[in-house]
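Appendix B, example 12.
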Amino acid sequence: LREAQEKALALPGTARAVTLDVGESADIHPHHKRPVGERLANLALREVYEQPVQPYSPTVAEVRAGENELRLQFRHAEGGLRTTDGKAPRGFEICGPDGAYQPADARLDGDGVLLTHPAVPAPAGVRYAFRADPDINLVNAGGLPAAPFRRDPPA
């Protein structure tokens, strides 16, 4: 469902409000409606009324493989990324060419995140918040949660 929502963003006049942080683990409909409404309103203010608000969640812009690590660069991360609890970012998984995903050790790096795992010496794929009820804490300077995504290794 989340990947379908991401693909729909290619259509004109579409936007997405990420609400993974206000949902309920046993209910697809969040009980806290105000943050959802505020995020949607801010998208309309920016997209339709061209008001100077920042309504966008961080979205992965680039995935670069390095020696034993993946570096993710994010859009909408002006002012840097942070976590809601001051701990390391959670919700990332990486894999090598074999496609066996492992929970990643993540660390913030300005408007990016560095990912490693000892069992993945040549990382080739990454996914974030790729669970029904993900444990996530990555936000931009405006407090908006990072959007879920998946980039599988090349076939």
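Helices lie at 2-8, 33-47. The CA atoms of residues 64 and 71 lie 5 Å apart.
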